[in-house]
């Protein structure tokens, strides 16, 4: 780019307007003062020339590349992709008035340029919005290579370009999108995103849709000052996970909420591979999960959900406070034995478990009149009373697969009470499964 010396600019203004050079210099200095030093004297000289209608360089009528632009160019056309937007900010001039300044960065194949907007011109920068079918957009993005993606919106149509993949998706006016609800941001907690999603994974699949008891179709959260308890049940089994909070909270009291199962699965999908903390806000009828994204011009990802109305059942009553029989065994062996027994179970998915502390035997049995039967004895540490009880093998398998430790605890109470699965060395999780009653 060719820069015109300020002396030449003053000379050209003098020749075309008849103003004295001293007057022109004073106007340039006044402009620098008015803009509170945000432009140099050279920049102010260009502004004064433009305000006085003095064309410093011959106007260009063709579109030019960014690297072809020269200082003082007027009446030219150029094009580039907007790669960054700096928000409008205000500043106080030395004369007491308030000014506005904003800028954008545009790029083409030859370089980049920063475009600055002053005062009323800042309104030129406007926020763009469009509503796009989420499932179509998500499915298309998931099929793209791991390369840069370009988005362009024109007349409610979204154009997407990624290497050899190009598409246009018809959208709707952003005004048709539902109003995003406001949520009270005074009550919040911070929690590690990976830890939260792993905890949700352990209980989220237990709940099932229910029109008669909608409260148990969601996931129950109890927020306390230093702990979160997450619970889910379908009346046949129950999972409970407790998380200790190490970070700041603003809680002045306990909050109990029922979150839709679909929302918890969206939390896992969106935040499951993120690092760092999620900030959770909640109110009597809404919850918001917020993840900061400082690397973009957008401050965060937000997921807002309504809560399920109703009171969650007092599930603590069904969790056994003590046991008559306890077994500790290798998780992989127990899992494999239940899978094998499931091949021979009847229509109700029944497998029988028998613990004999006296003979130190733990056996698993299943049978079907149409198929045959299966019986095995597996190693286990057994203490307490002898017991024989039947469970649904599918519910047992779900509980075993949720536990991450190499050894697993099974606690039983008589032949008709619920069983409890726990990881060895971890008191933060338990899985309660109801037995199959003998006919």
Automatic annotation (TrEMBL):
This is DNA polymerase III subunit beta. Residues 317-437 form the DNA polymerase III beta sliding clamp C-terminal domain. Pfam families: DNA_pol3_beta, DNA_pol3_beta_2, DNA_pol3_beta_3. One of its GO terms (molecular function) is DNA binding. GO terms for cellular component: cytoplasm; DNA polymerase III complex. It is found in: Cytoplasm. One of its GO terms (biological process) is DNA strand elongation involved in DNA replication. It comes from Candidatus Nealsonbacteria bacterium RIFCSPLOWO2_02_39_8.
